[in-house]
């Protein structure tokens, strides 16, 4: 077992629960002692580049949606970029798995997956990463151990528990990063999974991306406990309260959480407080919040502006950073062209991949 | 329920008996246990999980001694969290394991429908075959044991209605073993419903007669070792010329007993798997007999009999000499005190056979 140090696994769940070497606050304390990751200038540039790619990609996706090239549902990640980049930059991509909900474009891009095949999935083309059969909410990559992309709110969390159990069973040293939102945090199966994860000491980091609104319902209108990181307490899962608008803070928290899991410490519940600038989906008029609130986040807490400022303080010029933006805009424009001009799937694809067996 | 469960456990964990010819005879519980044992032995990716399946050996003893033999990482207990159990199993399957979760009663499967329908059945399609969900959900189903409305249901048509799932229902110990092995090896998600009324013996439908034992039934001869029965192949229980009877699970035995007692030359097909359905066998038989009767224990409206009836009408219309007969449970919750009024027993089946012969 990967967690030989800890005696709890699915195999011996009845180990004495009374022995208590466990502190629900230890990780949060470690995080508070050193909230930010010491990034090199090169790493910071990478974070900047990756976050900017997500933002420009999403802006383009919004435009394509407006033009009718993307149909159905499309949930943009703008404003939340620091969460995916801060966390996923700390993963060991040879071992670790990731699963998330429907707002998944950013998590795919964080792997460095070609934006073309992601955009083509959004437009439902055969060249899309899931042959156009998944769409915006359902994208997958076996190569990167990315398990989707799930449209049912909260359902991916239980799958994450299974991925973590498989890591433990295979003793492959990997962990599962399972994202969900503040809305999904009120689904019962999330807590069934937390119970099992803690009972069996599974290598999983539960991440609540708290963007403050479950569609149009503010967290305090739907949640009795709005400090989501505390919700693991009932299952003896340590929580972490993280500023999800600061990529260095997210990355710092990721280091602490992943280290805890890899040492056999069992699951962690991390809340990343963040904010989405756009509506829940493209059809959301956002009447549940004020313009001033959104503008306040954009003006004072934007994760990309923040790292840009740090980079400039370290001597990068405005022109250096503009050049990066220009490159990214080009990549995104090419992705959009590709997505617009590739063919739709053949009609015969309707009946493929339903069942493995033919009958 | 506990009385019935205790009674079933009273059958204890025999390893079967040898008959005068030296054949090994097993009841259905033992045959299922044998299949699980063999698959645990053959494939290290097979994992058995569920409520009470480990230490306790299963409420009906289907997993008795498997944890002792194969260890706690292979066979383990879960919390009472059906949605979580199935969700975790889907994640495990996506990662490459081959989980066999038990849902203690089919009546308890409903909290897991979110996972079965939105995740297990659909994962392959929306990921364009990148990920599969090769889990086999075993669950005792059906009535005739005085279980009342929450321990007697036959919800198979809920699952046959979902593209991406397979539904298997054995009617004999021999088939239970071979079909379960095939289901576990199958790369699609399989719902494996075990008719609990016939766990310990075939059932004629005459509840007031002494309980029969499997030992005298030809299909209780269960060979040692590995064998599989392919999914999608019906079994001709008996050949006949006067009518075709389509049945599965417990009702195969009831229909057979009625035909025998009334001396009707009925051809009885045990469908074994509802999806995939052996439609060729159905067509061939109905074309021969010209008459078709469908028997199931589930409620009538939108039951699987409705699908069978539509298929036979579409495909065999010009061979039909009488309207198709359906004998099913009534459109009520499964009753407690009026169980035998609900159960499509020998009287109703006999009357329908008479009507079909007159028609």
TrEMBL record, chain A:
Q: What Gene3D superfamilies has UniProt attached to this entry?
A: 3.40.50.970
Q: Which SUPFAM superfamilies match?
A: Thiamin diphosphate-binding fold (THDP-binding)
Keyword check for Metal-binding: no
| Disordered, as annotated region | 1-21
Reactions catalysed, semicolon-separated, are: N(6)-[(R)-lipoyl]-L-lysyl-[protein] + pyruvate + H(+) = N(6)-[(R)-S(8)-acetyldihydrolipoyl]-L-lysyl-[protein] + CO2
Q: Which residues form the Dehydrogenase E1 component domain?
A: 50-347
Q: Which PANTHER family match?
A: PYRUVATE DEHYDROGENASE E1 COMPONENT SUBUNIT ALPHA, PYRUVATE DEHYDROGENASE E1 COMPONENT, ALPHA SUBUNIT BACTERIAL AND ORGANELLAR
Quaternary structure, per UniProt, is: Heterodimer of an alpha and a beta chain.
Described function? The pyruvate dehydrogenase complex catalyzes the overall conversion of pyruvate to acetyl-CoA and CO(2). It contains multiple copies of three enzymatic components: pyruvate dehydrogenase (E1), dihydrolipoamide acetyltransferase (E2) and lipoamide dehydrogenase (E3).
User: What protein does this entry describe?
Assistant: Pyruvate dehydrogenase E1 component subunit alpha
Annotated source species: Parapontixanthobacter aurantiacus
TrEMBL record, chain B:
- Oxidoreductase found in the keyword field: yes
Extract the Pfam families matched here: Transket_pyr, Transketolase_C
Q: Name one GO molecular function term.
A: branched-chain 2-oxo acid dehydrogenase activity
Instruction: Please provide the record's keywords in A-Z order.
Output: Oxidoreductase
The cofactor named in the record is: thiamine diphosphate
Q: Where is the Transketolase-like pyrimidine-binding domain?
A: 26-201
Name assigned to this protein: 3-methyl-2-oxobutanoate dehydrogenase (2-methylpropanoyl-transferring)
């Amino acid at each position: 077992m990967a967690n030989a140090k800890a005696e709890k696994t699915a195999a011996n769940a009845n180990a004495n629960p009374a022995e208590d070497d466990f502190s629900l606050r230890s990780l949060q304390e470690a995080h508070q002692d050193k909230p930010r990751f010491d990034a090199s200038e090169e790493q910071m540039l990478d974070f900047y580049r990756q976050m900017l790619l997500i933002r420009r990609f999403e802006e383009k996706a919004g435009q394509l949606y407006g033009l009718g090239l993307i149909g159905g549902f499309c949930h943009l990640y703008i404003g939340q970029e620091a969460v995916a980049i801060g966390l996923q930059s700390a993963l060991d991509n040879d071992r670790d798995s990731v699963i998330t909900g429907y707002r998944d474009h950013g998590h795919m891009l964080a792997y460095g997956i070609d934006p073309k095949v992601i955009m083509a999935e959004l437009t439902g083309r055969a060249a899309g990463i899931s042959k156009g059969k998944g769409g915006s909410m359902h994208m997958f990559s076996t190569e990167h151990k990315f398990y989707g992309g799930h449209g049912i709110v909260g359902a991916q969390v239980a799958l994450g528990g299974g991925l973590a159990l498989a890591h433990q069973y295979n003793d492959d040293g990997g962990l599962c990063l399972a994202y969900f939102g503040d809305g999904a945090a009120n689904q019962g199966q999330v807590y069934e999974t937390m119970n099992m994860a803690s009972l069996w000491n599974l290598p999983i980091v539960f991440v609540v991306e708290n963007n403050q609104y479950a569609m149009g319902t503010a967290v305090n209108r739907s949640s009795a406990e709005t400090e989501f990181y505390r919700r693991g307490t009932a299952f003896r899962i340590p929580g972490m309260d993280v500023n999800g608008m600061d990529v260095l803070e997210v990355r710092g928290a990721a280091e602490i959480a992943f280290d805890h899991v890899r040492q056999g410490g069992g699951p962690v519940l991390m809340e990343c407080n963040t904010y989405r600038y756009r509506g829940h989906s493209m059809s959301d008029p956002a009447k549940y919040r004020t313009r001033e609130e959104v503008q306040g986040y954009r003006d004072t807490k934007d994760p990309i502006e923040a790292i840009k400022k740090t980079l400039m303080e370290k001597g990068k010029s405005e022109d250096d950073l503009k050049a990066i933006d220009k490159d990214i805009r080009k990549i995104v424009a090419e992705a959009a062209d590709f997505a617009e001009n590739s063919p739709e799937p053949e009609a015969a694809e309707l009946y493929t991949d339903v069942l493995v067996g033919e009958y | 329920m506990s009385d019935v469960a205790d009674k079933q456990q009273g059958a204890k964990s025999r390893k079967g008996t040898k008959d005068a010819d030296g054949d090994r005879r097993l009841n259905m519980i033992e045959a299922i246990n044998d299949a699980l044992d063999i698959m645990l032995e053959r494939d290290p990716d097979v994992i058995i999980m569920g409520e009470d399946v480990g230490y306790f050996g299963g409420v009906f003893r289907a997993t008795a001694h498997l944890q002792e033999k194969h260890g706690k990482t292979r066979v383990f207990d879960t919390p009472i969290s059906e949605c979580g159990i199935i969700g975790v199993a889907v994640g495990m399957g996506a990662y490459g394991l081959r989980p066999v979760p038990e849902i203690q009663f089919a009546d308890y499967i409903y909290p897991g429908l979110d996972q079965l329908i939105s995740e297990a059945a659909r994962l392959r399609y929306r990921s364009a075959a990148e990920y599969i969900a090769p889990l086999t959900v075993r669950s005792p189903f059906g009535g005739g044991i005085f279980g009342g409305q929450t321990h007697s249901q036959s919800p198979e048509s809920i699952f046959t209605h979902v593209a991406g799932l397979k539904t298997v229902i054995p009617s004999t110990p021999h088939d239970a073993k071979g079909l379960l092995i095939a289901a576990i090896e199958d790369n699609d998600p399989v719902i494996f419903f075990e008719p609990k009324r016939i766990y310990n013996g075939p059932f004629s439908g005459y509840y007031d007669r002494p309980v029969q034992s499997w030992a005298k039934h030809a299909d209780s001869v269960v060979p040692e070792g590995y064998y599989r029965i392919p999914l999608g192949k019906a079994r001709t229980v008996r050949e006949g010329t006067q009518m075709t009877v389509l049945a599965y699970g417990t009702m195969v035995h009831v229909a057979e007993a009625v035909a025998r007692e009334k001396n009707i030359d009925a051809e009885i097909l045990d469908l074994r798997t509802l999806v995939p359905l052996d439609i060729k066998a159905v067509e061939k038989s109905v074309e021969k007999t010209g008459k078709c009767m469908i028997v199931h224990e589930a409620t009538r409206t939108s039951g699987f009999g409705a699908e069978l009836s539509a298929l036979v009408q579409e495909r065999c219309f010009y061979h039909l000499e009488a309207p198709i007969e359906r004998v099913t449970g009534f459109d009520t919750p499964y009753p407690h005190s009026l169980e035998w009024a609900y159960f499509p027993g020998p009287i109703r089946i006999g009357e329908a056979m008479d009507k079909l012969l007159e028609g």
